[in-house]
Structure formats: structure tokens, C-alpha cells
Amino acid sequence: MTHLLRVPPPAAPPLTGHLPFTDAPGVPDPIEVTSRWLTRGGRAWLPVSGEFHYSRCPHGEWEEELLKMKAGGVTAVASYVIWIHHEEIEGRVRFDGHRDLRCFAELCARHGLDFIPRIGPWSHAEVRNGGLPDWLLARACTPRTDDPAYLEPVRAWFTAIAGQLRGLDRASGGPIVAIQIENELYDQPGHLRTLKRLAQEAGLSAPLWTSTAWGGVQLPGDELLPLYGGYSEAFWTEADGGWPDTCRKHFFFTHERDDEGIGADLRPTAVRGAGPAPTDRFPWATCELGGGMAVAYHRRPRVEAADVGALGLTKLGCGSVWQGYYMFHGGTNPAGELTSLQESHATGYPNDLPVLTYDFQAPLGEYGQVRPSYHELRLQHLLLAGFGHRIAPMRSVLPEQPPAGQHDRDTLRWAVRTDGTSGFLFVTNHQPHEPLPGHPDTAFTVAFPDAPSLTLPSTPVTVPSGAYFCWPLRLDVAGLRLEWATAQPVCAVEADGRTVLVLAATDGIAPELALDADTVGSVEVPSGEITPVAGRVLVSGVRPGTDALVEVEAADGSRVGLLVLDAATARTVYRGRAWGAERLVLCGDGVVFDEHRHEVRLHSPAAEPTFAVLPAPDSALVVEGAGVREAADGVFTRYTVDAGPPAGTVATVRSVRPAGPAPEPVTGVQGRASVPGEKDVDAAAAEYRVDVPQDLLRNPSGVLLRLRWTGDLARACVGDALVADQFWSGRVWDIGLDRLPARALRTEGLRLKVLPLAPDAAVHVPEQPDDTWREARVLDAVWVVTRRWAVRTG
């Protein structure tokens, strides 16, 4: 079947200068906002922001984790500035340790990352009281309104934030590109305007002032840039509600920006704003695309890497010009001095969250774990780093035959971003929970108003179930025009006197490259066929891999390489400045580029970490404390670190006592299941003791205890102190050894409490074949040691 999309005539130019967002005078790369996209330094700009809460991560880990985010393609770091984390006790505002907002912002600046503080005062973020301190709620005031008794402490709080960020604004060369006011406040535009004014009076400054815009928010005119979101799953819906339609909608190409589901548990569904913000005045920007999802006690969704990747790619096809993820990096709730600091029924919220973990199943986990979703998103972010300035001004166009509705699983989902003559074709054939069928005999025709139509591929293909991808249409590369390809552009790099464009094949679809014959002088292929077809040079039969380099001499004499990697290898591509030049690094583990220390660091649990580089540096690479072997890997040079085996082993977990009968279920706010009380846990939980090897205790950095277990909830304690916790959802449970109190651990040891779940408890977990998961058991445990290797030139 050939799917047809007709590109309409060019739209009128976007509105410019109509919004009150101005950058600091004299900055070299001024940020501006049109009605359809953002610009920076006069060039279309497509930022990638990722949420990372500094106050939920130890201070000493910030820099390396920020570098991981940057290597993952994040260009701006967003973070809630959570009031209760800083001023739990009235009048004692703390910015020390993990609360050091200024240090965090300075680290962003040091490594070329923009910073977006989300200053509240109400944040939500699954924090106690949404981030408002208990002492504030005890006052005679009406929070989140213009009540003077509320605005007085808010003014003081904003002044404290401004003091920390003084000199870090754009006028001073700082990293702050945007400031978010409040969060999810949908029906008080006047209060939003007041909060912005208070923040400005306190001394806060940014070219962009933003607000979340879901739920039909009412905004104060043009004063705040509306930002949207979308999640593949939700913990805040009912346990028996199934997969929410508000999540399902995000796996379709549409031009609807709003999501009525986000935060719907905290607002009356019958009371909404006046409708979505006008789309003819603001670009489609996001701040909360689901990088994962938290788990609540009553509902425990599990988010897979493909869910995250397909969601992000679909939003690009829909027209997003700002990819913002929540969360990109997970965290741990700090220990409160007066109370625990998580959202809970005890504070009147409809969801019970774990006391400590805020891992969020994020691409970078609570302890910095590099997850498959990190690699999925990095693949897309490499595309945006290289071609985002082309994609941002392109409008989204939908096909002639779109799906009939949100439950249509049979119509292929696709869209095109286009400028009228070229573009990118997006396909999503994945959604969670309900697999979509494959689509055999598929071809696409894109009819342009000002250029000949394109039909691709040369022979119809099957779009596999679960596939999602982006194909280029008339992409110019260093003098060569790639008319189309059935492989996704990844990035380009200069190597051996030529521009190498890397493309990622899709499993199940043979890659084809159609070159404009007028731009081609000669073509050489490592495998496959070269066929002249109607003014094009068609390259087919290429076997994807590190040696699949199609070498082209363009008609203007420039040299271009088209490197087609297989899908798995493409997800190991990093691009960054390393050893004095821009290079590609292939590595299935974590990689950071540290220009200040002139090194690349690998984070790997492997006995012999390996990575490949293009172009290879002129000097030999060295790793302190280990040898390095070098070998050819296609057009790359592969290096293997002779590191010796890591210290990780099977963990010794001893049963201390079996579980008792599961406690009777209890309910709380909105009739949802509540976390069992401490007495129930103490009475019914199975207890285990974990022996921690002395060699790991001597060097706990990068060491995880990884447990497979079943039951309701689990808690880890050192002595009487809770050090980690989790609700069961079928995922492994990681505990970072270097986060545990070392001295007490040596004397007290590590204890695990695992509680069984009653058969009639109103708790949702992903589909299970039987009820054995409700039994309280530790199935197995291993020590995972991720070592850090600094790679330098000799």
C-alpha cells in the first residue's frame, strides 16, 4: 500500500516580536521566540531539556551526572527549586550540600549546559505538600493565590533564590535561559502574573518565562511561554483504570498539544481553564515528555525504553520545537529533619509514594545507572544536534488517511516535517501494552507543492511491529543531495578528509539510499548494488555495520561518506569533542566528554571495557592503571581496556525470618490503597541480611546491590535507619553502596524487609501470569561494579 501525504502551500511567515520575551542586551547568541519556533543567534534553535533535581542527588556526584546528560544530548538542565528542601524550618534557609543551587548552576555553565530553574513556589514533583513547607501551610493564608499572607513568604523565598543565582543570568554570561513560574496552576492567570512580577522584583532574569500549559490552563496573556507534556504511563490514575487514553494519545501524530491527564488527580475534572493557549502565537514546546514514570503504591506502571523512544520521536513528528523530558535523571528524596518529604496520603495527596526513591525509571537512574532509554533518546538527540536547526522551522503535515481514532491499531501512523521542498518522514508503529501489527507492502508518497513528489522506498517494505524511525527527504550533505533514505540520520563528523553522515538502519527494513544524480560524481559501495533510476543513483543491498561506508565524490569535488550502522550499533553512538577534535565514540556503556580535563571517561561494568572511535586520534590512547589493545573495526578504530575482572560477584543474602500473613489492605485519599503502616511491616515482613564484602566497602564508588525480588514493598535498613525502598513492579531493585553510611554498615550490616501483598489489595502492577509475585521473597542478588576509566592521549 502506498500512503499519500500532500504538503500544502507554504504558510505565511511566523509572527516575530509579538511576545514580551527579550534577551539581555549585547549577548552573542540572543534568544528570540517566533510564533512557530525559537531562534538563538539568529538561527533556528531546537533545545533539548532534561529534568535533574540537584536536591535529590549527592553534591559530589553532580558534575559527572551533568556530563552524562550532556553526552546524552541534553542541552539544557531543568530543575525544580523545591522550597521544603531548602526551608523545612521557617527562617532557616539552607543552600548547603545537596541544596547548593548556585554550585549546581555554575556546574551547568562550566560544561556548556543551559539551566532552567523551576522556582515554584508550588512544584508538585511528588514532594510533600507539592514543595510548600509545613510551616507555611500552618499559617492563616490561602496558598497559590494573591493572598498577601501567602505572597509575603513567597517574596522572601524568591529573594533567597535570586541571591543564589545572582550573576548567573544571561547579561552576566550565565546559563539561565528560562525560568518556570509555579506548576500546573490552571485557573489563576492573575496569580501567575503576580508571581512573575515578584520574581523579577527579587532580581531574577531570563529571556524566557514559562508555565506548564496542560489541563486547559488559563495564562496571563503573552507573559508566559506555554510548555506541554505527555507520558506513556501514569501512576496518578486509578488502579483498575487500564492504560489511560490520555497516555495512548501520545503515540499518534496529531496537532493537539494539550494533555488533560497530567495532574488530573489534583484538580477537579469539571473545572478547567478556558481552553488551550493559542497555537498561532506560541511555538509547540514541551517540558515534560515522560523519560520514565514514578510508581505509587496503588498503581505501579513499568516503562520500557521503546515507550520512551517512540514517545519522543512521535512528538517531533507532531511539530515539537523543544524536547523537554521529565525525568531525565532519577533521584532520592533527602531525609527531612522533621518529616519524610515524599508525597503521601498523610499529607492529603491521592498517592502514596516511596519514602526515598525517586528513580522514575529515568534514562539515568537514581544512582546514575545508564539505561536502554538513555541510548534510545541519545540517538534522537544526535539527529537534533546536527539537524535541529533545519527541523525546527518545518511544519508538521499529516497524511491523507490518518487513524480513525485512539483505538485504531490498524492504520499506519506517520507524518512529515517539511519546509515545502524537503523534510523528514516520521513513522511510529509502537505503543505500550497493546502491540501494533506489522504493515507489509508499505511505501510512501510525499507530494510537494514546489518540488517533484517523492515515493519511497524503491520496493515496498514491511514496517515491523514495534518500529519507529525518521527518514530524510532531500537532505543536503556537504554538496551531496540525499533524495531519500530508508535509514535514520544520526549525525555527521569530519574524518579522513570527508564528511561522514551516519545513518541508523531499522531492524527488518533493508536500507536504501537515493542520491540526486546531478550532485554525484562517483559512488563506491562496500556491498550491494548501484542503480541509475530516473535522475537518481539508487544504492541498495548494503549490509549495515561499521564497514558499511558508501563513498561518494560529489559533483562539486567534495567527498562524502554515508555510513549505515545496524540498529543496535547505532544506539551506541556518542558524539563529542575528544582529544582535540569532534569524534564519534561507539560504546554500549556510559561515556562522558570532559574537555576541561582533556579526557573521555568510560563508565562500564565490563571486565574488558571496549569502545571504538572515528576518526582515531593521531596519538595512542592510554588508560591509567590498565593496558589498551587497538584493532580495526570497519572504519572505526576499536580500543579494549585490559582492566582485569571487576570485583562484582553474587551477593550473599541470608534469610533471617520468613514473612507472616500479608496485612489487611487499607485505603486513604480518594479510596486508593495506602502503604501499610510501620507496625504491619515489622510484624509481617520477611527479613534478610546481606553480607557486604570488605573489598567493596573499601571502595564503594559505582557499586550497586542488584536484587530480584517479589512482594509488595521492600525496605533496606542500616541499623534503624531507612536507606532505600521500593514498591514491587517487576523491575530489579538497585541499592547504591556508596550512598550507605559506611561506618554503621560495617558494624550493623544491611537488612532487607520484604512485605507480602494480600490477594484482595487494590494495587495495579504490569500483567503477571499468576499471583506468585505477591509472595515476599528475595530471588537472587548480585554486586554490580561499574568502574570509571579515564582515557587520554599518550
TrEMBL record:
Q: Which Gene3D superfamilies match?
A: Glycosidases
Example GO BP: carbohydrate metabolic process
Q: Which SUPFAM superfamilies match?
A: (Trans)glycosidases
**Residue limits of the Glycoside hydrolase 35 catalytic domain?**
41-186
A GO molecular function held by the record: hydrolase activity, hydrolyzing O-glycosyl compounds
Q: Which domain of life is it from?
A: Bacteria
Q: Where is this region: Disordered?
A: 1-21, 657-676
PANTHER family, per this entry? Answer: BETA-GALACTOSIDASE RELATED
Q: What is stated as this protein's family in its record? A: Belongs to the glycosyl hydrolase 35 family.
Q: What is this protein called?
A: Glycoside hydrolase 35 catalytic domain-containing protein
